[in-house]
Amino acid sequence: MRAPPAVRVALAALFLDMVCQSLVYPAMPELLRSLTNGTAASSAVLFGFLAATYAAAELIGAPFMGRLSDRIGRKPVLAAGFLGSSLSFALAASAPDVALLFVGYGLAGLTSALIVVVNSVIADSTPEEERASAFGLVGATFGVGFVIGPVIGALVAGLGLRAPFWTAAGLSFVAFLLVALALPESLPADRRSKQTMRFVWPWQSLSVLGRWPLVRGLAWVALMNGLALQMLIGVWVPHATYRFGLGVAENGWLLAGYGLVMALSQALLVPRVVPKLGNRRAMLVGLGVSSIGMLEGSYHQNLKTLPEYYAALDDGRLPVTRGVLLDDDDRLRRHVIMRLVCAQDLDIAATEARFGIDFRSYFAPSLARLAGMAEDGLVEILPGVIRVRDAGRMFLRQICMCFARYVGAGEQGTRFSRAI
């Protein structure tokens, strides 16, 4: 399919916008810490609120941008949006304090809602039989932009913490010029909406989903999948920065690798899998095959082979092969192990208060096993905290096994993995 000129220009501008968004992401944790002179923990909290501000602004901006483009045309809305995006990145780049950074990022969230207008350009410009392929180009554009953006961020990181933001401001201005000078209007005047702008609140747009049960169900799936993805991305860079000391450049290359895998899956895997499996089964496979699920009271593993997985679904059964219900001791040990793995330290007093135990008596055998690792310099066992030292990070599995309930009980059976 050869995309119409309006689609090509809109996708090129969207690519630049995605580059800008992913370009500044690796630099944000360090910029926050430099503005606040705070601890890693307080900066991580601010990072979360900043991301939430961006998302809330995007939620408000999306229905407004879409309805406005229905009334006045796609081109003026896209042009104004990319110009606003350039200004928002410039504002963030020059922010002397966190408050102005929040203002700039909120404005960036409003303008990032331009994706809905780009989708409208595609719908305006392509026949119905080619529309699915055209919308697929949006996913590919996102993936490629997510690869290129962090790479540019890594390359300009040596110029200073604010260099990625100034670079993003310049690229957003290029997108504005591209739209203003090269984008043909895709919505003729006689097809524009005559409705007033009072129907643009997010909850009103979301309430429309209730009219179509299939769309409502897909929206819930997209919400849960997006929540999981954003939690991963939202924690990734702050954790890598504050816990492992990675800089802007290192985080940029990591995100570029993630984006490359995402782009390759969109371009190579999806076009081959969906025609063979169908839309429904492809989504089920992508979301669930061989996944380890964790609910509040259980762990479970899905069936591993496709025939078994499909057969269970066709019979109306959950495709689960095995699981275990958790008791209070399991939940306690899960908390201890997760803290050691994810944070490399465990607050003993907080654990005692949460679970109502005396930590040292409850875990006396575990602490006895851990004492040898403390002598080797892998962990610190202090009165109020257990902390994994730098030398112990390569031995996290052995450290956590000291608190595992089932390792000793199952030693006589078959073991399928080893720590080293």
- Radius of gyration equals 25 Å
Coarse shape: globular
Task: Give me the secondary-structure category.
Answer: mainly alpha
**Average pLDDT across residues?**
79
Number of helices: 18
Distance between the termini: 51 Å
Instruction: Tell me the strand order in the biggest sheet.
Output: 1-2-3
Helix content: 55-70%
Characterize the biggest β-sheet: 3 strands, antiparallel
Strand content: 5-15%
How many E strands? 6
Low-confidence segments: 409-417
Order of helices and strands: HHHHHHHHHHHHEEHEHEHHHEEH
List keywords for this structure.
single chain; 420 residues; mainly alpha; three-stranded antiparallel β-sheet; 18 helices; 69% helix; globular
What is this structure's SSE topology?
Layout: H1 5-24, H2 28-36, H3 40-72, H4 74-93, H5 98-112, H6 115-125, H7 128-156, H8 163-182, H9 202-207, H10 213-244, H11 248-277, H12 279-288, E1 292-295, E2 298-302, H13 306-314, E3 320-325, H14 328-342, E4 345-347, H15 348-355, H16 359-362, H17 364-375, E5 379-381, E6 385-388, H18 396-401
Antiparallel strand pairs: 1-2, 2-3, 4-6, 5-6
Description:
The protein is mainly alpha-helical and 420 residues long. Helices cover 69% and strands 6% of the residues. The chain is built from 18 helices and 6 strands. The chain has helices spanning 5-24, 28-36, 40-72, 74-93, 98-112, 115-125, 128-156, 163-182, 202-207, 213-244, 248-277, 279-288, 306-314, 328-342, 348-355, 359-362, 364-375, 396-401; strands at 292-295, 298-302, 320-325, 345-347, 379-381, 385-388. The strands form 2 sheets. The chain has a 3-stranded antiparallel sheet, with no helix packed on it. Strand 1 (292-295) and strand 2 (298-302) form a beta hairpin. Helix 2 packs across helix 3 (40-72), helix 3 (40-72) packs parallel to helix 6 and helix 11 (248-277) crosses helix 12 (279-288). Residues 409-417 have low confidence and may be disordered.
